[in-house]
Specification:
With about 130 residues, this protein is an alpha+beta fold. It has one domain: 60s Ribosomal Protein L30, Chain: A. The chain is about 20% helix and about 25% strand. The protein is built from two helices and six strands; from the N terminus they run βββαβαββ. The strands form two sheets. It has a four-stranded mixed beta sheet, with helices on one face. Strands 1-2 form a two-stranded antiparallel ribbon. α1 packs parallel to α2. The radius of gyration is 15 Å and the shape is globular. The protein starts with 8 loop residues before the first strand and ends with a strand. This is Enamine deaminase RidA.
């Protein structure tokens, strides 16, 4: 997905520091007069509110939920400024980046990842905290 909101959200990886170790941008700049959107952590529930036991299915559902909640505010993934990721087990990065690339394409937002002991409910294995500007 191309960044169609270059005037609102711009992403950069300065050449004076090492390249990102993953698929994210070191710098995300928000233009003046943009509105900030902060979303509650998104988890891997399906359309019926059920949380699947499979970690990768939770990843897939979480990304879909992010796209849907953005759309509810007339935003797209190009509006995302930063995502904080919390996971209770090692992430299957091949699967994660496959879904991530489908959502964010070549201009991914800034990202922070942390592994934690547990999340809000025992069945939640991954949660993504989304910040956007539009």
């Amino acid at each position: 997905m191309m960044n169609m909101n270059k005037k609102i959200v711009q992403r950069h990886n300065p050449e004076i520091i090492a390249k990102p170790v993953g698929k994210y941008s070191h710098v995300t700049k928000i233009s003046r007069n943009a509105e900030m959107y902060v979303f509650s952590g998104q988890i891997g529930t399906d359309q019926n509110g059920q949380i699947p036991a499979d970690f990768n299915q939770q990843v897939t559902n979480t990304m879909k939920n992010i796209v849907d909640i953005l759309a509810s505010q007339h935003l797209t993934p190009d509006h995302v400024v930063k995502i904080n990721i919390w996971a209770v087990e090692k992430i299957d990065w091949d699967h994660f980046y496959e879904v991530w690339d489908q959502v964010f394409g070549q201009t991914p937002p800034s990202m922070t990842i942390a592994y934690v002991k547990e999340l809000g409910l025992p069945e939640i294995q991954i949660e993504l905290d989304v910040w956007a500007a539009g």
